[in-house]
């Protein structure tokens, strides 16, 4: 909420990829806040730009991608004004990141210990002995059995779940203020996913850090996040606290996502898919990006891009329906939340 | 729904040899599927669920003889497929199709959609040559594509569209059974819902039978009539969808269901955290294969392999493979292990 | 690891069997009678027959082969037809010259190849990258005898910097090593580049950057070690090409190495020497590849050594 102090404020972030086919605006004016100590979920389907947003925060975008503009304020300081050297001091130290594929995200030719110690060496100048001591503490913290032994093991000797724990240990080594988790459990089995998500949550409480959770899984969002930004085609279309988003979703895309989701916790007669597909970058609509798939779209939607507006209670929506200019059916504003079996 | 048994799998085993030592002999086997039996009735959808390494995909491949099973029988329409020679099997494949997870990898990149579908029909010779053109247009329309898509190559389509082509190819030979191996797992939810609805529609219209292999329990709950839960090459529980999801009996099924994140912030999370990782299928644990991670395991579970069985209070056809189903249900057998801590892991067995 | 090495050594047996058999048959199936050769054009039939008996040329082929292998195992390659000296003594000094040439050239090609490949990969599609890759293409395409002659023309005859022929002094080493090493350097540069490009796009490189690792350390510590794995294989294969290349290089620079010995012996139909040379070169090639495979597994921890 707006009363909360934000640790990260992203404003109008733009990241493009310059390919032979022209400019692809992967992140196209993204704005959101991460309240201190809370978890913000960024949810979206493939091509929504959620991962590129995460990579842009740490400026890990490499050729042919480029951050074109906007502001990324971390503790009041715009990261885009920093030099590469200053940025390196932030990466892995104040802001850390974990990735989707634990199988490939660790260097196969170095031991677990070498990889964790490296963080201590870079950011705290610790030698091998002190680094190993700290690394063992971290491995214990993330629940890895016999950590002394693990230190000398190579990533291939560990299971997927263990590797993701090592990744978390490495990311949290320097006790960052912000952890960016990019689909941290997508590649894992569901019972392992449950362990890892719980672990992240517990560590967040213990270390008092904030988390940005990038995911395509609305279940993961509901379980782990306090606030949610829904992205579609490089833009945030809805930003709300998690309860509001699931109980009273307003953007037609968010509603569509929830209605297409097969649920494991209750029976559903039928799924209502969103029609059509995500537009390709070279045929991006000029108006609302979602208009071609939106059941309520009017001429206004097809012609003019709506802005991300406050609609009260800290909620933001990018949709013409919730503006005074709306000229379609006034009834579509009311979304009847489905009754759930629980509470 | 008719009760004709279309597919009857009995004592199916699929071992993959491991070569090793100085002379590269077979030193051991990966017991990917180890003695499983089940039936699938005509017109129903049976899902096989479980985590990686449980043998669900291997089961699907073994049934279609994409890998030749080590032992057991697979009766399809009364014929044991494992007795057939190559030629007879090829004929049989007309009735049994498979849709894979990655539609891109399973489509020939140098063939247009038309060529792909024509080839499928030519191999099985189901549609007279002169009618194939019309049939292709009809098929594409059925799966929600346009007839002009027929002359495009796989790379010109999106993931969802490619999966539709995979479905069209499977349908082109008018099969009875379709094995869907993680068929919608790679798709975004909005597209996944489209494909799921399509699969349901065809089932109704063409009386298709699906063997639906998936790790996504939301999808499984939506599409299945019956569900088979596998763990390390064994079936641990089987039953109608309602029983499995609302009255699970095996501790593994319970843990699996409790682990799924539910898209509802108010959902009450009574989560069972399993200890450690799935053991290796090379030397699977003795007795009940789940005993190394099971919250309720006792000495008996280490020694005695539980068979699939039913109990009086369970629905018809609902079976679990656990010694303590009834006692857990009545509360007489309490957990023997911690299930709420994610950081007090037992020493996991060494990975091989 | 020990199991792996033992297994690889066992696998050498059929390879060596094949090599000896091939060399043996090659010599025995080529037209021309060795006895006649030794005895000379004008020798009488009885002399020739006597020689045939003493050399065991009338024994059945399998017996001859077994004798051949037994002798070879004891480093007894017979006597040179030309000089009537033990072949082994004939080969020994020349063998070391060729090994020196091959090893120096390999070191040169690895050194230049790696640097060029890394520099290219780090700035893909830059002017630097394109220039290096064009030079590499030339390096691969130039026949080495031609390159040798050109180098000799410029640096020995025109500029007089290096002696044009011979082997031994530091100056004499330079041109032949460049001649022989260029193609290898080009191949290794191209391999290093593509391997580095592949590795740089891997997830763990992104992880390293996200940790705040300096870009240079990302390249030289995190990326290079992984990128070297396929390069090592190429170096091994390249060594074989290199051995073949010594024949031409030694001829161009008049170096008395193994390669030249082969040529001279073939010209003189000195079969035992040819046989021994081919055999030795084959064995070196096999052994080098064994070493490469073992170092490959040491570099790449993921390879299951059992």
Tell the overall outline of chain B: globular
Gyration radius of chain A, rounded: 21 Å
* Overall pLDDT score of chain A: 90
Q: What sequence of helices (H) and strands (E) makes up the elements of chain B?
A: EEEHEEHEHHHHEHEHEEHHHEH
Largest interface: A-B, 61 and 53 residues
Q: Approximately how much helix is present in the residues of chain B?
A: 25-40%
Give the strand content of chain B: 15-25%
For the structure shown, list the relevant keywords.
B: alpha/beta, seven-stranded mixed β-sheet, four-stranded antiparallel β-sheet, 22% strand, globular, disordered C terminus, C: 306 residues, mainly alpha, MetI-like fold, 2 domains, 12 helices, 78% helix
Describe the structure.
Chain B: It comes from Allobacillus saliphilus. Chain B: Belongs to the ABC transporter superfamily. Chain B: Keywords: ATP-binding, Nucleotide-binding, Transport. Chain B: GO terms for molecular function: ATP binding; ATP hydrolysis activity. The complex is a heterotrimer of chains A (343), B (352) and C (306). Chain A has helices spanning 50-57, 84-90, 112-124, 128-141, 147-150, 160-172, 190-207, 218-224, 242-247, 252-260, 299-303, and strands spanning 6-19, 22-35, 39-43, 65-74, 77-78, 95-98, 178-182, 210-215, 227-232, 235-241, 309-310, 316-317. Chain A is built from eleven helices and twelve strands. In chain A, 30% of the residues lie in helices and 22% in strands. Chain A starts with 5 loop residues before the first strand and ends in a 26-residue tail after the last strand. In chain A, the strands form two sheets. In chain A, strands 6-7-8-3-9-10-12-11 form an eight-stranded mixed β-sheet, sandwiched between helices. In chain A, strands 2-1-4-5 form a four-stranded antiparallel β-sheet. Chain A is of the alpha/beta class and 343 residues long. In chain B, strands 6-7-8-3-9-10-11 form a seven-stranded mixed β-sheet, with helices on both faces. In chain B, strands 2-1-4-5 form a four-stranded antiparallel β-sheet. In chain B, strand 1 (5-20) and strand 2 (25-41) form a beta hairpin. Chain B is globular. Mean pLDDT of chain B is 89; it is low at 348-352. With 306 residues, chain C is mostly helical. Chain C has helices spanning 2-29, 34-39, 45-55, 61-73, 87-122, 127-141, 144-158, 170-200, 203-210, 215-252, 258-267, 271-299. In chain C, helix 1 (2-29) runs antiparallel to helix 12 (271-299), helix 5 (87-122) runs antiparallel to helix 10 and helix 9 crosses helix 10 (215-252). The radius of gyration of chain C is 24 Å and the shape is flat. The N and C termini of chain C lie close together (7 Å). Chains in contact: A-B, A-C, B-C. At the A-B interface, helix 6, helix 7, helix 8, helix 9 and helix 10 of A face helix 6, helix 7, helix 8 and helix 10 of B.
């Amino acid at each position: 909420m707006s009363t909360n102090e934000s640790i990260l404020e992203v404003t109008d972030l733009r990241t493009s990829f310059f390919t032979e086919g022209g400019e692809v605006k992967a992140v196209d004016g993204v704005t959101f806040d991460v309240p201190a100590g809370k978890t913000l979920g960024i949810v979206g389907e493939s091509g929504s730009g959620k991962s590129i947003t995460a990579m842009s925060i740490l400026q890990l975008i490499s050729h042919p991608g480029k951050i074109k503009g906007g502001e990324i304020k971390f503790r009041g300081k715009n990261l885009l004004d920093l030099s590469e050297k200053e940025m390196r001091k932030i990466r892995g130290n104040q802001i850390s990141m974990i990735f989707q594929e634990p199988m490939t995200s660790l260097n196969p030719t170095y031991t677990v210990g070498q990889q964790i110690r490296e963080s201590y060496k870079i950011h705290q100048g610790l030698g091998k002995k002190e680094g190993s001591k700290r690394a063992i503490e971290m491995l214990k913290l993330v629940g890895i059995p016999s950590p002394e032994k693990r230190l000398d093991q190579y990533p291939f000797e560990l299971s997927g779940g263990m590797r993701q724990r090592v990744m978390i240990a490495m990311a949290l080594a320097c006790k960052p203020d912000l952890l960016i988790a990019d689909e941290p459990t997508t590649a894992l089995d569901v019972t392992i996913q449950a362990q890892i998500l719980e672990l992240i949550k517990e560590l967040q409480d213990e270390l008092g850090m904030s988390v940005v959770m990038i995911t395509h899984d609305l279940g993961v969002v509901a379980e782990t996040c306090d606030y949610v930004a829904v992205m579609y085609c490089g833009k945030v279309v809805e930003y709300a606290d998690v309860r509001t988003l699931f109980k009273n979703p307003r953007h037609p895309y968010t509603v569509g996502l929830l209605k297409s989701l097969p649920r494991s916790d209750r029976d559903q007669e039928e799924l209502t898919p969103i029609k059509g597909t995500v537009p390709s970058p070279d045929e991006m609509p000029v108006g609302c990006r979602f208009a071609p798939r939106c059941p309520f779209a009017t001429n206004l939607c097809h012609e003019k891009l709506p802005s991300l507006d406050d609609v009260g209670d800290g909620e933001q929506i990018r949709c013409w329906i919730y503006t005074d200019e709306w000229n379609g059916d006034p009834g579509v504003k009311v979304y009847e939340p489905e009754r759930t079996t629980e509470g | 729904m008719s009760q004709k048994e279309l597919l009857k799998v009995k004592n199916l085993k699929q071992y993959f040899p491991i070569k090793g030592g100085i002379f590269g002999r077979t030193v051991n086997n990966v017991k990917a599927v180890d003695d499983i039996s089940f039936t699938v009735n005509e017109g129903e959808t049976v899902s096989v669920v479980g985590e990686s390494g449980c043998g669900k995909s291997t089961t699907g491949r073994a049934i279609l003889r994409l890998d030749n099973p080590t032992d057991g029988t697979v009766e399809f329409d009364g014929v044991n497929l494992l007795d057939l020679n190559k030629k007879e099997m090829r004929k049989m494949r007309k009735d049994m199709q498979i849709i894979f997870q990655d539609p891109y990898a399973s489509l020939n990149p140098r063939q247009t959609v038309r060529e792909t579908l024509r080839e499928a029909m030519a191999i099985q010779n189901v549609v007279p040559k002169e009618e194939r053109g019309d049939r292709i247009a009809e098929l594409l329309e059925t799966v929600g594509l346009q007839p002009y898509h027929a002359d495009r190559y796989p790379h010109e389509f999106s993931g969802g569209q490619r999966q539709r082509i995979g479905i069209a190819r499977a349908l082109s030979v008018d099969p009875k059974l379709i094995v869907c191996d993680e068929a919608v797992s790679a798709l975004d939810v909005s597209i996944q819902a489209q494909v799921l609805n399509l699969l349901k529609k065809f089932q109704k219209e063409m009386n298709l039978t699906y063997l639906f292999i998936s790790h996504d329990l939301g999808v499984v709950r939506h599409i299945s009539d019956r569900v088979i839960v596998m763990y390390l090459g064994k079936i641990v529980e089987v039953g109608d969808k309602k029983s499995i999801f609302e009255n699970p009996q095996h501790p593994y099924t319970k843990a699996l269901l409790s682990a799924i994140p539910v898209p509802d912030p108010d959902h009450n999370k009574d989560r069972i955290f399993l200890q450690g990782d799935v053991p290796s299928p090379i030397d699977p644990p003795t007795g009940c294969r789940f005993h190394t991670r099971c919250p309720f395991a006792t000495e008996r579970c280490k020694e005695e392999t539980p068979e699939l069985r039913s109990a009086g209070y369970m629905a018809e056809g609902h079976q679990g493979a656990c010694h303590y189903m009834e006692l857990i249900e009545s509360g007489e057998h309490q957990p023997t292990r911690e299930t709420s801590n994610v950081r007090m892991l037992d020493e996991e067995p060494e990975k091989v | 690891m020990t199991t792996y090495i033992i297994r690889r050594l066992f696998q050498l047996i059929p390879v060596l069997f094949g090599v000896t058999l091939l060399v043996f048959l090659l010599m025995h199936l080529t037209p021309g009678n060795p006895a006649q050769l030794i005895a000379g054009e004008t020798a009488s039939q009885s002399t020739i027959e006597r020689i045939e008996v003493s050399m065991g040329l009338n024994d059945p082929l399998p017996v001859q082969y077994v004798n051949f292998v037994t002798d070879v195992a004891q480093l007894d390659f017979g006597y040179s037809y030309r000089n009537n000296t033990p072949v082994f003594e004939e080969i020994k000094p020349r063998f070391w010259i060729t090994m020196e040439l091959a090893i120096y050239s390999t070191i040169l090609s690895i050194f230049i190849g790696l640097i060029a490949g890394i520099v290219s990969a780090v700035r893909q599609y830059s002017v630097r990258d394109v220039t290096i890759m064009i030079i590499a293409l030339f390096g691969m395409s130039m026949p080495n005898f031609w390159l040798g002659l050109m180098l000799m023309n410029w640096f020995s005859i025109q500029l007089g910097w290096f002696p044009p022929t011979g082997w031994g002094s530091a100056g004499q080493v330079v041109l032949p090593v460049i001649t022989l090493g260029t193609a290898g350097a080009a191949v290794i540069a191209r391999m290093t580049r593509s391997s580095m490009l592949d590795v740089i796009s891997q997830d763990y490189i992104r992880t390293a950057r996200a940790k705040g690792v300096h870009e240079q350390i990302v390249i030289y510590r995190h990326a290079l070690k992984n990128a070297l794995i396929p390069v090592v294989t190429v170096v091994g294969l390249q060594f074989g090409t290199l051995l073949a290349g010594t024949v031409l290089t030694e001829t161009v620079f008049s170096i008395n190495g193994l390669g030249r010995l082969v040529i001279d012996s073939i010209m003189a139909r000195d079969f035992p020497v040819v046989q021994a040379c081919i055999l030795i070169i084959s064995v070196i090639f096999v052994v080098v590849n064994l070493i490469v495979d073992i170092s490959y597994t040491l570099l790449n921890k993921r390879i299951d050594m059992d």
